[in-house]
Amino acid sequence: MIKKFKCIHVGLGNFSLQRLQLNLNNNLFDVVAFVDIDVTNAADKLKKLNNLPENYENRVFKSISDAQKKFSAEVCFIYVASEIHPKLIIESLENKLHTFCVKSIACEMTDFKKIIEVKKKYKKLKLVQGLNNQWNEASLKMQELLKDKENFGELMIGNCTVWGRQNLKSEKPTVDVIKEGIFFHSMGIHQLSQIVAALGLPESVVSSSLEFKQEDIGFKGVTGTSSGVSFFKYKNGGTISYSATRGGHGNPFGFASRWSGNWLFHGTKGDIKRDGGRLTLYKNGNIVEDFFLKDLDNNLYLDELKQYEMFHQNLSGNNKFDMQKKSLESWLLMEACNISIKKDKKILLNDLILETGFKNL
Prior knowledge:
Layout: E1 5-10, H1 14-25, E2 29-35, H2 39-46, E3 60-61, H3 64-71, E4 75-78, H4 85-94, E5 98-102, H5 109-121, E6 127-130, H6 137-146, E7 155-163, H7 175-178, H8 182-199, E8 204-208, E9 227-233, E10 239-245, H9 257-260, E11 262-267, E12 271-275, E13 278-283, E14 286-292, H10 301-315, H11 323-343, E15 347-348, H12 349-356
Parallel strand pairs: 1-2, 1-4, 2-3, 4-5, 5-6, 7-10
Antiparallel strand pairs: 7-11, 8-9, 8-15, 9-10, 11-12, 12-13, 13-14
């Protein structure tokens, strides 16, 4: 019999409500309480949903601590603005809750270190950064092929191109256009977490970002907000290049590329090409396999659900795919890109791991 973990859901914005509905519908998590700063209007937001617990109006709290005192949950899901993620993650861990927080769990290194310090006190708890783009069928197949030693072999070179035009203009500028280096944490991680899932962390990173103002779509010229270029080198010498922008003058590869990426890999035994949901494996000058799979689901519902299923497996003791390790490594890789841009130098990932105490989780 599958265990349903009692959980607290934090945040009642539109995106968060969509994710909440997924957990209300599944048999993995039992949502027992809700947290939102706007308690007064929470019931009006919640009543639009299905499968709510009884007396849901009386299950809304202003803090995780208050909700936990009342309901003694086991898990906390966090879906709010990224600027307040660190505070809420720490509160969740201090309440002895396994914590799942949508990316990015932190926007800068100082906050990440604070989170890690608290996490060290609760080694039995899981801390996962939600990364939905690596869970669709096409991404999972790409990860599988990259790990196929017989057909792909060892990585030699690879490339990911992300090219799109995203309108982020708003009356009050969002963190995505005013926070230096946020591009990698808010956009680059969609593609690059897929590489971490398949191949782990590279040995070193070199990155750059040249920005210019594009007021018509909201970008103000802040370094590392609309674009980034990186080179990731692995221990065997294999290297992946990454060129990405969400401030392009068009969408030459189509909408999906902005999130999934267009990929090409050269291995010692074969090559892999991915364009949206199509993946092709080449060997000896010929197409060996051609896959036409589902890329991004509408509103990423299926992708999110697969992610929740794996999180549930991890909580139940199945750590074949360690979400905590892979998702936090993805954060470190994004921050390595930012540090490389700021210092104009190559960054060694082992140095960051030692600096943050990441190995001792």
